[in-house]
Amino acid sequence: MIKILFVCHGNICRSPMAEFVFGDMVRKRGLADQFHIASAATSSEELGNPVHRGTTNKLKQYGISTAGKYATQLKKKDYQEYDYILGMEYRNIRNINRIVGSDPEHKVSMLLDFTEHPRDIADPWYTGNFDKTYDDILEGCEGFLNYLISQNEIEMR
């Protein structure tokens, strides 16, 4: 089982969007049983809050529910529990490394590092542009899934 943790600042916009988009993607391809997918925050300011309504509304357009998801915080022990820890922007990576201590197993990356155009995913909390965030996350999730396939980490059926 491949264990993936998507991480952003507050765990109410980008990382839960990635969690649910990637989960939907692998479910539709019949691969869901090969994954454990979650998301977390580097900060504590949104802990316990539900997914932001902008993310919820955007995902609802694609039939994806965020019901039952509440913001949680990344913990040092998560480094040992997950195979991949994927941040949304360079500040997330800096904060992930601060929390986990170091990355000797090279588990920490930015989600869009798995695409042809590595870059930050802008935070829609500030931009208000959930459409652009969704497009970037979809691109990143597709790139990451293709990476896993190319590395023979997934049993294709």
Strands, helices and their partners?
Layout: E1 2-8, H1 14-28, E2 35-41, H2 53-60, H3 78-81, E3 84-87, H4 90-100, E4 108-110, H5 124-127, H6 130-150
Parallel strand pairs: 1-2, 1-3, 3-4
Helix pairs in contact: 1-6
What are the salient characteristics of this protein?
157 residues; alpha/beta; Rossmann fold; four-stranded parallel β-sheet; 6 helices; 4 strands; 13% strand; globular
Tell me the series of helices and strands, N- to C-terminal: EHEHHEHEHH
> Quick one: CATH class?
Alpha Beta
User: Per the principal axes of the C-alpha atoms, what is the gross shape?
Assistant: globular
CATH topology: Rossmann fold
How large is the radius of gyration?
14 Å
Largest sheet: 4 strands, parallel
How many β-strands, per DSSP? 4
The mean pLDDT is 96
Relevant CATH superfamily: Response regulator
Architecture per CATH nomenclature, i.e. the level-2 architecture: 3-Layer(aba) Sandwich
Class by helix and strand content?
alpha/beta
β-strand amount: 5-15%
Proportion of helical residues: 40-55%
**How many domain regions?**
1
Organism: Sporofaciens musculi
Keywords: Hydrolase, Protein phosphatase
Enzyme class: hydrolase
GO molecular function: protein tyrosine phosphatase activity
